[in-house]
Request: fold
Amino acid sequence: MTDLIRYTAAETAAAVASGDVSAVEVAQAHLDRIDAVDTKVHAFLHVDTEGALSAARAVDEKRARGEELGPLAGVPLALKDVFTTRGVPTTAGSKILEGWVPPYDATVTSRLKAAGVVILGKTNMDEFAMGSSTENSAFGPTGNPWDLTRIPGGSGGGSAAALAAYEAPLAIGTDTGGSIRQPGAVTGTVGVKPTYGTVSRYGLIAFSSSLDQGGPCARTVLDAALLHEAIAGHDPLDSTSIDTPVLPLVAAARQKDIRGMRIGVVKEFGGEGYQAGVMQRFHESVALLRSLGAEIVEVSCPSFTYALPAYYLIAPSEASSNLARFDGLRYGLRTGDDGTRSAEDVTALTREAGFGPEVKRRIILGTYALSSGYYDAYYGSAQKVRTLITQDFARAFADVDVLVSPTTPTTAFPIGERADDPMAMYLADLCTIPSNLAGNSAMSVPCGLAPEDGLPVGLQIIAPALADDRLYRVGGAVEAALNDKWGHPLLEEAPVL
Amino acid sequence: MPGITREEVAHLARLSRLELKAEELDHFAEQLNAIVDAVARVSEIAADDVPPTSHPLPLTNVMRPDVVRPSLSPADALAGAPAAEEQRFRVPQILGED
Reply:
Protein backbone atom coordinates (compact mmCIF):
# COMPACT_ATOMS: atom_id res chain seq x y z
CA MET A 1 0.00 0.00 0.00
CA THR A 2 1.26 3.50 -0.74
CA ASP A 3 2.16 5.65 2.18
CA LEU A 4 -1.24 6.85 3.38
CA ILE A 5 0.23 9.53 5.61
CA ARG A 6 1.63 11.37 2.59
CA TYR A 7 -1.71 11.65 0.81
CA THR A 8 -3.26 15.07 0.57
CA ALA A 9 -6.71 15.46 2.13
CA ALA A 10 -8.26 15.55 -1.37
CA GLU A 11 -6.49 12.30 -2.32
CA THR A 12 -7.47 10.63 0.93
CA ALA A 13 -11.13 11.57 0.53
CA ALA A 14 -11.13 10.28 -3.06
CA ALA A 15 -9.47 7.00 -2.04
CA VAL A 16 -11.96 6.47 0.78
CA ALA A 17 -14.93 7.35 -1.44
CA SER A 18 -13.81 4.94 -4.17
CA GLY A 19 -13.14 2.16 -1.68
CA ASP A 20 -9.39 1.95 -2.46
CA VAL A 21 -8.76 2.27 1.27
CA SER A 22 -11.02 2.29 4.29
CA ALA A 23 -11.28 5.28 6.57
CA VAL A 24 -10.20 3.00 9.42
CA GLU A 25 -6.97 2.12 7.57
CA VAL A 26 -6.29 5.80 7.01
CA ALA A 27 -6.97 6.67 10.65
CA GLN A 28 -4.82 3.78 11.89
CA ALA A 29 -1.92 4.82 9.62
CA HIS A 30 -1.98 8.29 11.18
CA LEU A 31 -2.34 7.00 14.73
CA ASP A 32 0.69 4.76 14.07
CA ARG A 33 2.61 7.75 12.74
CA ILE A 34 1.74 9.77 15.86
CA ASP A 35 2.91 6.83 17.97
CA ALA A 36 6.17 6.73 16.07
CA VAL A 37 7.13 10.42 15.98
CA ASP A 38 5.14 12.45 18.48
CA THR A 39 7.42 11.74 21.42
CA LYS A 40 9.93 13.82 19.43
CA VAL A 41 7.60 16.44 17.91
CA HIS A 42 5.05 16.81 20.73
CA ALA A 43 2.39 18.21 18.42
CA PHE A 44 -0.43 16.58 20.38
CA LEU A 45 -1.64 17.18 23.93
CA HIS A 46 -4.23 14.44 23.65
CA VAL A 47 -4.68 11.65 21.11
CA ASP A 48 -8.24 10.35 20.89
CA THR A 49 -7.55 6.88 19.47
CA GLU A 50 -11.00 5.48 20.21
CA GLY A 51 -12.88 8.53 18.98
CA ALA A 52 -10.86 8.63 15.76
CA LEU A 53 -11.36 4.95 14.97
CA SER A 54 -15.05 5.13 15.75
CA ALA A 55 -15.50 8.20 13.51
CA ALA A 56 -13.61 6.38 10.76
CA ARG A 57 -15.77 3.27 11.18
CA ALA A 58 -18.87 5.43 10.84
CA VAL A 59 -17.57 6.74 7.49
CA ASP A 60 -16.85 3.21 6.27
CA GLU A 61 -20.31 2.05 7.32
CA LYS A 62 -21.92 5.00 5.58
CA ARG A 63 -20.09 4.08 2.39
CA ALA A 64 -21.07 0.42 2.76
CA ARG A 65 -24.71 1.51 2.92
CA GLY A 66 -24.24 3.31 -0.38
CA GLU A 67 -24.72 6.78 1.10
CA GLU A 68 -22.91 9.70 -0.45
CA LEU A 69 -19.78 10.89 1.38
CA GLY A 70 -18.81 14.54 1.73
CA PRO A 71 -15.60 15.94 0.22
CA LEU A 72 -13.61 15.37 3.44
CA ALA A 73 -15.18 12.17 4.74
CA GLY A 74 -12.59 9.89 6.29
CA VAL A 75 -9.83 12.52 6.31
CA PRO A 76 -7.91 12.75 9.61
CA LEU A 77 -7.48 16.12 11.30
CA ALA A 78 -5.57 17.60 14.23
CA LEU A 79 -7.67 20.06 16.25
CA LYS A 80 -6.11 22.92 18.17
CA ASP A 81 -6.80 22.40 21.85
CA VAL A 82 -8.69 25.67 22.11
CA PHE A 83 -11.90 24.28 20.59
CA THR A 84 -14.20 22.42 22.93
CA THR A 85 -14.80 18.74 22.23
CA ARG A 86 -17.56 16.94 24.08
CA GLY A 87 -16.09 14.14 26.18
CA VAL A 88 -12.51 14.87 25.09
CA PRO A 89 -10.16 16.93 27.32
CA THR A 90 -9.64 20.57 26.31
CA THR A 91 -6.93 22.64 27.99
CA ALA A 92 -6.09 25.67 25.79
CA GLY A 93 -2.52 24.83 26.80
CA SER A 94 -3.21 25.88 30.39
CA LYS A 95 -2.84 24.19 33.78
CA ILE A 96 -6.00 25.96 34.85
CA LEU A 97 -7.99 23.71 32.49
CA GLU A 98 -5.94 20.54 32.93
CA GLY A 99 -8.29 17.58 33.10
CA TRP A 100 -11.36 19.56 32.07
CA VAL A 101 -13.72 17.59 29.84
CA PRO A 102 -16.13 19.95 28.06
CA PRO A 103 -19.81 19.03 28.06
CA TYR A 104 -20.34 20.43 24.55
CA ASP A 105 -18.80 20.66 21.08
CA ALA A 106 -17.64 23.90 19.48
CA THR A 107 -19.48 24.66 16.23
CA VAL A 108 -16.22 24.00 14.35
CA THR A 109 -15.98 20.61 16.07
CA SER A 110 -19.55 19.66 15.26
CA ARG A 111 -19.19 20.77 11.63
CA LEU A 112 -16.06 18.64 11.26
CA LYS A 113 -17.87 15.65 12.72
CA ALA A 114 -20.85 16.20 10.43
CA ALA A 115 -18.46 16.29 7.44
CA GLY A 116 -17.08 12.87 8.39
CA VAL A 117 -13.69 14.33 9.28
CA VAL A 118 -11.77 12.05 11.65
CA ILE A 119 -10.49 14.07 14.61
CA LEU A 120 -7.23 12.43 15.76
CA GLY A 121 -6.70 14.56 18.84
CA LYS A 122 -5.95 17.98 20.27
CA THR A 123 -2.82 19.93 19.44
CA ASN A 124 -0.36 21.86 21.55
CA MET A 125 -0.49 25.65 21.69
CA ASP A 126 0.71 28.65 23.62
CA GLU A 127 -1.41 29.00 26.73
CA PHE A 128 -4.76 30.57 25.75
CA ALA A 129 -3.21 31.19 22.31
CA MET A 130 -0.91 33.88 23.72
CA GLY A 131 2.43 33.51 22.02
CA SER A 132 4.33 33.00 18.79
CA SER A 133 6.35 29.88 19.57
CA THR A 134 4.18 27.35 21.48
CA GLU A 135 6.76 27.63 24.29
CA ASN A 136 4.08 29.19 26.49
CA SER A 137 2.21 25.88 26.63
CA ALA A 138 1.95 24.63 30.20
CA PHE A 139 2.63 21.16 28.83
CA GLY A 140 6.02 21.72 27.20
CA PRO A 141 7.11 23.01 23.79
CA THR A 142 6.55 21.51 20.33
CA GLY A 143 9.47 20.92 17.98
CA ASN A 144 9.55 22.19 14.40
CA PRO A 145 9.75 19.07 12.18
CA TRP A 146 12.34 20.89 10.01
CA ASP A 147 14.64 21.18 13.04
CA LEU A 148 13.35 19.88 16.35
CA THR A 149 15.46 22.38 18.32
CA ARG A 150 13.50 25.25 16.76
CA ILE A 151 10.03 26.61 17.42
CA PRO A 152 7.11 25.59 15.16
CA GLY A 153 5.58 29.04 15.50
CA GLY A 154 2.63 29.86 17.67
CA SER A 155 0.23 29.92 19.06
CA GLY A 156 -0.88 27.03 16.82
CA GLY A 157 2.52 25.34 16.68
CA GLY A 158 1.06 21.92 17.41
CA SER A 159 -1.34 22.07 14.47
CA ALA A 160 1.35 23.22 12.02
CA ALA A 161 3.90 20.69 13.31
CA ALA A 162 1.35 17.86 13.00
CA LEU A 163 1.00 18.69 9.30
CA ALA A 164 4.72 19.02 8.64
CA ALA A 165 5.44 15.76 10.51
CA TYR A 166 2.77 13.91 8.45
CA GLU A 167 0.78 13.18 11.58
CA ALA A 168 -2.34 14.63 9.93
CA PRO A 169 -3.15 16.06 6.48
CA LEU A 170 -5.43 18.72 7.96
CA ALA A 171 -5.48 20.83 11.10
CA ILE A 172 -7.49 23.63 12.64
CA GLY A 173 -5.93 26.72 14.13
CA THR A 174 -7.02 30.08 15.47
CA ASP A 175 -5.52 33.37 14.43
CA THR A 176 -5.71 36.34 16.80
CA GLY A 177 -2.48 38.05 15.70
CA GLY A 178 -0.98 35.50 13.32
CA SER A 179 -1.35 32.19 15.17
CA ILE A 180 -2.35 30.28 12.01
CA ARG A 181 -0.20 32.07 9.42
CA GLN A 182 3.08 32.39 11.35
CA PRO A 183 3.22 28.66 12.28
CA GLY A 184 2.33 27.88 8.66
CA ALA A 185 5.19 30.04 7.43
CA VAL A 186 7.88 28.56 9.68
CA THR A 187 6.83 24.93 9.08
CA GLY A 188 6.41 25.12 5.29
CA THR A 189 2.65 24.58 5.42
CA VAL A 190 -0.44 26.54 4.37
CA GLY A 191 -2.46 28.54 6.90
CA VAL A 192 -5.46 30.78 6.39
CA LYS A 193 -7.06 33.41 8.60
CA PRO A 194 -10.60 33.77 7.25
CA THR A 195 -12.50 37.03 7.31
CA TYR A 196 -13.52 37.80 10.90
CA GLY A 197 -17.03 36.52 11.52
CA THR A 198 -17.08 33.84 8.81
CA VAL A 199 -16.02 30.88 10.98
CA SER A 200 -17.98 30.47 14.21
CA ARG A 201 -16.28 31.26 17.52
CA TYR A 202 -18.85 29.25 19.50
CA GLY A 203 -16.85 26.87 21.67
CA LEU A 204 -13.56 28.59 20.84
CA ILE A 205 -12.06 29.48 24.23
CA ALA A 206 -11.85 33.27 23.98
CA PHE A 207 -8.57 35.18 24.08
CA SER A 208 -9.42 38.44 22.31
CA SER A 209 -12.97 38.27 21.03
CA SER A 210 -12.77 41.05 18.43
CA LEU A 211 -9.67 39.44 16.88
CA ASP A 212 -9.95 35.64 17.35
CA GLN A 213 -10.75 33.72 14.19
CA GLY A 214 -10.61 29.97 13.57
CA GLY A 215 -9.31 28.75 10.25
CA PRO A 216 -7.80 25.94 8.18
CA CYS A 217 -4.24 24.60 8.17
CA ALA A 218 -3.10 22.13 5.51
CA ARG A 219 -0.19 20.98 3.38
CA THR A 220 -1.77 22.20 0.14
CA VAL A 221 -3.86 25.21 -0.88
CA LEU A 222 -6.64 22.97 -2.21
CA ASP A 223 -6.83 21.04 1.07
CA ALA A 224 -7.06 24.31 2.99
CA ALA A 225 -9.93 25.39 0.72
CA LEU A 226 -11.80 22.11 1.26
CA LEU A 227 -11.44 22.48 5.02
CA HIS A 228 -12.29 26.18 4.97
CA GLU A 229 -15.57 25.48 3.12
CA ALA A 230 -16.41 22.74 5.64
CA ILE A 231 -16.10 24.96 8.72
CA ALA A 232 -17.31 28.32 7.40
CA GLY A 233 -20.85 29.66 7.40
CA HIS A 234 -23.30 31.50 9.58
CA ASP A 235 -23.85 30.21 13.11
CA PRO A 236 -26.71 31.57 15.22
CA LEU A 237 -24.77 30.49 18.34
CA ASP A 238 -22.12 33.16 17.63
CA SER A 239 -23.57 36.67 17.71
CA THR A 240 -20.58 37.99 15.71
CA SER A 241 -21.10 35.46 12.93
CA ILE A 242 -21.80 37.05 9.54
CA ASP A 243 -24.89 35.78 7.73
CA THR A 244 -23.44 35.47 4.24
CA PRO A 245 -22.98 32.54 1.82
CA VAL A 246 -19.67 30.65 1.92
CA LEU A 247 -17.50 31.73 -1.03
CA PRO A 248 -16.45 29.21 -3.73
CA LEU A 249 -12.98 28.67 -2.26
CA VAL A 250 -12.29 25.23 -3.72
CA ALA A 251 -13.06 26.50 -7.22
CA ALA A 252 -10.71 29.45 -6.63
CA ALA A 253 -7.94 27.11 -5.46
CA ARG A 254 -8.31 25.08 -8.64
CA GLN A 255 -8.29 28.12 -10.93
CA LYS A 256 -4.48 28.61 -10.92
CA ASP A 257 -4.72 31.66 -13.18
CA ILE A 258 -3.92 35.12 -11.90
CA ARG A 259 -3.56 36.93 -15.21
CA GLY A 260 -4.84 40.47 -14.95
CA MET A 261 -4.90 40.61 -11.15
CA ARG A 262 -3.45 43.68 -9.49
CA ILE A 263 -1.19 42.80 -6.57
CA GLY A 264 0.16 45.35 -4.11
CA VAL A 265 3.49 45.11 -2.31
CA VAL A 266 3.24 46.83 1.08
CA LYS A 267 6.36 48.91 1.30
CA GLU A 268 6.26 49.15 5.10
CA PHE A 269 6.97 45.40 5.44
CA GLY A 270 10.74 45.02 5.10
CA GLY A 271 13.99 46.63 6.15
CA GLU A 272 15.45 46.46 9.63
CA GLY A 273 14.64 43.28 11.54
CA TYR A 274 13.85 41.28 8.41
CA GLN A 275 16.12 38.33 7.63
CA ALA A 276 17.94 38.64 4.27
CA GLY A 277 16.92 35.16 3.10
CA VAL A 278 13.28 35.86 3.91
CA MET A 279 13.34 39.05 1.85
CA GLN A 280 15.14 37.26 -0.99
CA ARG A 281 12.43 34.59 -1.24
CA PHE A 282 9.77 37.27 -0.94
CA HIS A 283 11.21 39.32 -3.83
CA GLU A 284 11.45 36.16 -5.92
CA SER A 285 7.79 35.46 -5.16
CA VAL A 286 6.82 38.93 -6.34
CA ALA A 287 8.76 38.33 -9.57
CA LEU A 288 6.97 34.99 -9.94
CA LEU A 289 3.57 36.66 -9.53
CA ARG A 290 4.53 39.12 -12.26
CA SER A 291 5.66 36.30 -14.55
CA LEU A 292 2.29 34.60 -14.01
CA GLY A 293 0.55 37.64 -15.45
CA ALA A 294 -0.24 39.75 -12.40
CA GLU A 295 0.38 43.47 -12.34
CA ILE A 296 2.58 44.47 -9.40
CA VAL A 297 2.25 47.88 -7.75
CA GLU A 298 3.84 49.27 -4.62
CA VAL A 299 1.40 50.53 -2.00
CA SER A 300 1.96 52.39 1.23
CA CYS A 301 0.11 51.65 4.46
CA PRO A 302 1.78 54.06 6.87
CA SER A 303 -0.28 53.11 9.95
CA PHE A 304 0.86 49.48 9.75
CA THR A 305 3.98 50.33 11.74
CA TYR A 306 1.64 51.08 14.66
CA ALA A 307 -0.23 47.80 14.37
CA LEU A 308 2.01 45.87 16.76
CA PRO A 309 1.74 48.38 19.64
CA ALA A 310 -2.02 48.71 19.06
CA TYR A 311 -2.41 44.95 19.11
CA TYR A 312 -0.49 44.61 22.38
CA LEU A 313 -2.96 46.98 23.98
CA ILE A 314 -6.19 45.69 22.45
CA ALA A 315 -5.55 41.94 22.76
CA PRO A 316 -4.41 42.04 26.41
CA SER A 317 -7.30 44.38 27.29
CA GLU A 318 -9.85 41.95 25.90
CA ALA A 319 -7.96 39.01 27.42
CA SER A 320 -7.97 40.56 30.89
CA SER A 321 -11.75 40.60 30.68
CA ASN A 322 -12.24 37.22 28.95
CA LEU A 323 -9.97 35.35 31.35
CA ALA A 324 -11.92 36.59 34.37
CA ARG A 325 -14.09 33.52 33.87
CA PHE A 326 -11.29 31.32 35.18
CA ASP A 327 -12.18 31.86 38.80
CA GLY A 328 -11.81 28.34 40.20
CA LEU A 329 -15.51 28.22 41.07
CA ARG A 330 -17.40 26.46 38.29
CA TYR A 331 -14.88 24.38 36.33
CA GLY A 332 -11.17 23.85 35.99
CA LEU A 333 -8.55 24.16 38.71
CA ARG A 334 -9.34 25.23 42.28
CA THR A 335 -6.45 25.82 44.65
CA GLY A 336 -6.31 26.70 48.35
CA ASP A 337 -9.92 25.94 49.27
CA ASP A 338 -9.17 24.77 52.82
CA GLY A 339 -12.48 25.85 54.31
CA THR A 340 -11.08 29.03 55.84
CA ARG A 341 -10.33 31.15 52.77
CA SER A 342 -12.84 33.38 51.04
CA ALA A 343 -13.91 32.79 47.44
CA GLU A 344 -11.91 35.85 46.42
CA ASP A 345 -8.71 34.50 47.98
CA VAL A 346 -9.26 31.06 46.47
CA THR A 347 -9.75 32.67 43.05
CA ALA A 348 -6.49 34.62 43.38
CA LEU A 349 -4.55 31.53 44.51
CA THR A 350 -6.08 29.44 41.73
CA ARG A 351 -5.15 31.97 39.05
CA GLU A 352 -1.63 32.32 40.45
CA ALA A 353 -1.17 28.54 40.31
CA GLY A 354 -3.04 27.95 37.05
CA PHE A 355 -1.79 30.69 34.71
CA GLY A 356 1.70 30.84 33.19
CA PRO A 357 3.89 33.98 33.03
CA GLU A 358 2.78 35.26 29.61
CA VAL A 359 -0.89 35.01 30.53
CA LYS A 360 -0.26 36.87 33.79
CA ARG A 361 1.74 39.55 31.97
CA ARG A 362 -1.07 40.12 29.50
CA ILE A 363 -3.80 40.18 32.12
CA ILE A 364 -1.87 42.84 34.05
CA LEU A 365 -1.06 44.80 30.89
CA GLY A 366 -4.70 44.70 29.81
CA THR A 367 -5.94 45.73 33.22
CA TYR A 368 -3.47 48.63 33.11
CA ALA A 369 -4.53 49.74 29.62
CA LEU A 370 -8.19 49.78 30.67
CA SER A 371 -7.73 51.44 34.04
CA SER A 372 -9.02 54.93 34.65
CA GLY A 373 -6.44 57.58 33.95
CA TYR A 374 -4.71 55.42 31.34
CA TYR A 375 -7.67 54.29 29.25
CA ASP A 376 -7.57 57.18 26.75
CA ALA A 377 -3.81 57.10 26.27
CA TYR A 378 -3.60 53.35 25.80
CA TYR A 379 -6.76 51.43 24.92
CA GLY A 380 -8.47 54.48 23.42
CA SER A 381 -5.47 55.37 21.24
CA ALA A 382 -5.10 51.75 20.14
CA GLN A 383 -8.72 51.76 18.97
CA LYS A 384 -7.98 54.84 16.87
CA VAL A 385 -4.96 53.13 15.34
CA ARG A 386 -7.30 50.30 14.48
CA THR A 387 -9.42 52.74 12.49
CA LEU A 388 -6.36 54.12 10.68
CA ILE A 389 -5.19 50.61 9.76
CA THR A 390 -8.63 49.75 8.41
CA GLN A 391 -8.54 52.95 6.35
CA ASP A 392 -5.08 52.07 4.99
CA PHE A 393 -6.42 48.69 3.87
CA ALA A 394 -9.48 50.30 2.27
CA ARG A 395 -7.29 52.71 0.28
CA ALA A 396 -5.00 49.89 -0.82
CA PHE A 397 -7.85 47.59 -1.85
CA ALA A 398 -9.43 50.37 -3.88
CA ASP A 399 -6.38 50.02 -6.13
CA VAL A 400 -5.35 46.35 -5.91
CA ASP A 401 -7.02 42.92 -5.60
CA VAL A 402 -4.65 41.53 -2.97
CA LEU A 403 -1.58 42.59 -1.03
CA VAL A 404 1.53 40.49 -0.46
CA SER A 405 4.30 40.52 2.15
CA PRO A 406 6.56 38.08 3.94
CA THR A 407 4.45 36.26 6.55
CA THR A 408 7.15 36.58 9.21
CA PRO A 409 10.30 38.71 9.46
CA THR A 410 12.49 35.66 10.18
CA THR A 411 12.51 31.89 9.87
CA ALA A 412 11.96 29.63 12.90
CA PHE A 413 14.16 30.68 15.82
CA PRO A 414 15.70 28.28 18.36
CA ILE A 415 13.53 27.13 21.28
CA GLY A 416 14.43 29.27 24.29
CA GLU A 417 15.92 32.19 22.33
CA ARG A 418 13.08 34.65 22.95
CA ALA A 419 11.28 32.80 25.75
CA ASP A 420 11.85 35.47 28.40
CA ASP A 421 12.00 38.48 26.10
CA PRO A 422 8.35 39.37 25.37
CA MET A 423 9.10 42.28 23.03
CA ALA A 424 11.40 40.13 20.84
CA MET A 425 8.75 37.42 20.74
CA TYR A 426 6.02 39.89 19.76
CA LEU A 427 7.97 40.93 16.64
CA ALA A 428 7.22 37.55 15.05
CA ASP A 429 3.71 38.84 14.31
CA LEU A 430 4.72 42.16 12.76
CA CYS A 431 3.25 41.41 9.32
CA THR A 432 0.23 39.36 10.35
CA ILE A 433 -1.38 41.63 12.96
CA PRO A 434 -2.86 44.34 10.67
CA SER A 435 -5.36 41.85 9.17
CA ASN A 436 -6.58 40.85 12.63
CA LEU A 437 -7.14 44.47 13.61
CA ALA A 438 -9.05 45.20 10.39
CA GLY A 439 -10.83 41.82 10.22
CA ASN A 440 -9.92 40.99 6.63
CA SER A 441 -8.60 37.64 5.32
CA ALA A 442 -5.03 36.45 4.78
CA MET A 443 -3.06 33.33 3.91
CA SER A 444 0.49 32.08 4.29
CA VAL A 445 1.79 29.81 1.55
CA PRO A 446 5.32 28.29 1.42
CA CYS A 447 7.64 30.15 -0.96
CA GLY A 448 11.01 28.46 -0.44
CA LEU A 449 13.80 27.94 2.05
CA ALA A 450 15.97 30.78 3.34
CA PRO A 451 19.46 30.24 1.88
CA GLU A 452 21.29 31.02 5.13
CA ASP A 453 19.53 28.42 7.32
CA GLY A 454 17.57 26.14 4.99
CA LEU A 455 14.31 26.84 6.85
CA PRO A 456 10.89 27.53 5.30
CA VAL A 457 9.71 31.03 4.35
CA GLY A 458 6.06 31.98 3.97
CA LEU A 459 4.50 34.36 1.48
CA GLN A 460 1.56 36.24 2.99
CA ILE A 461 -1.36 37.04 0.70
CA ILE A 462 -3.88 39.52 2.09
CA ALA A 463 -7.40 40.00 0.70
CA PRO A 464 -10.27 42.30 1.65
CA ALA A 465 -12.96 41.12 4.06
CA LEU A 466 -15.34 38.64 2.43
CA ALA A 467 -12.98 38.16 -0.53
CA ASP A 468 -11.20 35.09 0.89
CA ASP A 469 -11.55 33.39 -2.51
CA ARG A 470 -8.81 35.70 -3.85
CA LEU A 471 -6.37 34.16 -1.36
CA TYR A 472 -6.98 30.74 -2.83
CA ARG A 473 -6.76 31.96 -6.40
CA VAL A 474 -3.36 33.55 -5.81
CA GLY A 475 -2.12 30.91 -3.34
CA GLY A 476 -3.08 28.07 -5.69
CA ALA A 477 -1.24 29.69 -8.60
CA VAL A 478 1.90 30.35 -6.54
CA GLU A 479 1.93 26.81 -5.14
CA ALA A 480 1.49 25.22 -8.59
CA ALA A 481 4.23 27.34 -10.16
CA LEU A 482 6.69 26.68 -7.32
CA ASN A 483 5.99 22.94 -7.23
CA ASP A 484 6.63 22.91 -11.00
CA LYS A 485 9.90 24.75 -10.52
CA TRP A 486 11.07 22.54 -7.63
CA GLY A 487 9.70 19.32 -9.07
CA HIS A 488 8.00 18.52 -5.74
CA PRO A 489 6.24 20.19 -2.81
CA LEU A 490 8.56 22.08 -0.45
CA LEU A 491 7.77 19.78 2.47
CA GLU A 492 9.52 16.88 0.74
CA GLU A 493 12.78 18.63 1.54
CA ALA A 494 12.12 18.37 5.28
CA PRO A 495 14.32 15.87 7.13
CA VAL A 496 12.88 12.39 7.67
CA LEU A 497 11.73 12.01 11.26
CA MET B 1 4.50 58.86 29.64
CA PRO B 2 5.51 57.64 33.12
CA GLY B 3 6.68 54.05 33.45
CA ILE B 4 4.83 51.36 35.37
CA THR B 5 6.09 50.86 38.92
CA ARG B 6 6.37 47.72 41.02
CA GLU B 7 3.62 49.09 43.30
CA GLU B 8 1.34 49.59 40.31
CA VAL B 9 1.95 46.03 39.15
CA ALA B 10 1.06 44.80 42.64
CA HIS B 11 -2.14 46.87 42.59
CA LEU B 12 -3.08 45.64 39.09
CA ALA B 13 -2.40 42.05 40.15
CA ARG B 14 -4.81 42.48 43.07
CA LEU B 15 -7.45 43.93 40.74
CA SER B 16 -6.88 40.97 38.41
CA ARG B 17 -7.16 38.43 41.25
CA LEU B 18 -3.60 37.22 40.77
CA GLU B 19 -1.74 36.35 43.97
CA LEU B 20 1.73 37.12 42.56
CA LYS B 21 4.92 36.11 44.36
CA ALA B 22 7.48 38.79 45.22
CA GLU B 23 9.96 37.63 42.57
CA GLU B 24 7.20 37.65 39.96
CA LEU B 25 6.41 41.25 40.86
CA ASP B 26 10.03 42.29 40.32
CA HIS B 27 10.32 40.46 37.04
CA PHE B 28 6.95 41.56 35.63
CA ALA B 29 7.49 45.18 36.64
CA GLU B 30 10.68 45.30 34.59
CA GLN B 31 9.17 43.54 31.57
CA LEU B 32 5.89 45.46 31.67
CA ASN B 33 7.80 48.70 31.85
CA ALA B 34 9.55 47.82 28.58
CA ILE B 35 6.28 46.73 26.97
CA VAL B 36 4.35 49.82 28.07
CA ASP B 37 7.20 51.95 26.77
CA ALA B 38 6.92 50.31 23.35
CA VAL B 39 3.14 50.32 23.04
CA ALA B 40 2.76 53.93 24.18
CA ARG B 41 3.71 54.86 20.59
CA VAL B 42 0.04 54.48 19.62
CA SER B 43 -0.67 57.97 20.93
CA GLU B 44 1.62 59.45 18.23
CA ILE B 45 -0.99 59.01 15.50
CA ALA B 46 -4.19 58.78 17.54
CA ALA B 47 -5.44 62.26 16.70
CA ASP B 48 -8.62 63.70 18.22
CA ASP B 49 -10.54 63.49 14.93
CA VAL B 50 -9.92 59.76 14.44
CA PRO B 51 -12.94 57.71 15.53
CA PRO B 52 -12.21 54.56 17.57
CA THR B 53 -12.86 51.04 16.28
CA SER B 54 -13.73 48.45 18.90
CA HIS B 55 -14.73 45.69 16.53
CA PRO B 56 -14.21 44.81 12.85
CA LEU B 57 -17.92 44.25 12.18
CA PRO B 58 -20.57 46.97 12.21
CA LEU B 59 -22.98 44.71 14.11
CA THR B 60 -25.46 46.07 16.58
CA ASN B 61 -27.51 43.93 18.93
CA VAL B 62 -28.16 40.48 17.50
CA MET B 63 -31.46 39.17 18.79
CA ARG B 64 -33.24 35.84 18.53
CA PRO B 65 -36.73 34.75 19.53
CA ASP B 66 -36.93 33.89 23.22
CA VAL B 67 -37.95 30.25 22.92
CA VAL B 68 -37.04 27.23 25.01
CA ARG B 69 -34.27 25.17 23.40
CA PRO B 70 -32.35 22.09 24.48
CA SER B 71 -29.54 22.95 26.91
CA LEU B 72 -27.02 21.24 29.16
CA SER B 73 -28.41 18.90 31.79
CA PRO B 74 -27.56 19.80 35.40
CA ALA B 75 -25.25 16.76 35.51
CA ASP B 76 -23.37 17.96 32.40
CA ALA B 77 -23.17 21.53 33.65
CA LEU B 78 -21.75 20.40 36.99
CA ALA B 79 -19.47 17.71 35.59
CA GLY B 80 -16.42 19.98 35.64
CA ALA B 81 -17.17 21.68 38.96
CA PRO B 82 -14.38 21.55 41.55
CA ALA B 83 -17.13 20.95 44.13
CA ALA B 84 -20.89 20.51 43.76
CA GLU B 85 -23.78 19.92 46.10
CA GLU B 86 -27.53 19.56 45.55
CA GLN B 87 -27.27 20.38 41.82
CA ARG B 88 -25.34 23.55 42.60
CA PHE B 89 -21.74 24.76 42.38
CA ARG B 90 -20.24 24.63 45.86
CA VAL B 91 -18.00 27.66 46.38
CA PRO B 92 -15.91 29.02 49.26
CA GLN B 93 -17.56 31.61 51.51
CA ILE B 94 -18.32 34.85 49.71
CA LEU B 95 -19.36 36.88 52.76
CA GLY B 96 -17.53 37.46 56.01
CA GLU B 97 -18.56 35.30 58.97
CA ASP B 98 -21.44 36.61 60.98
Remarks:
- Chain B touches chain A through 56 residues (CB under 8 Å).
- Residues 22-39 of chain B form the longest helix (18 residues).
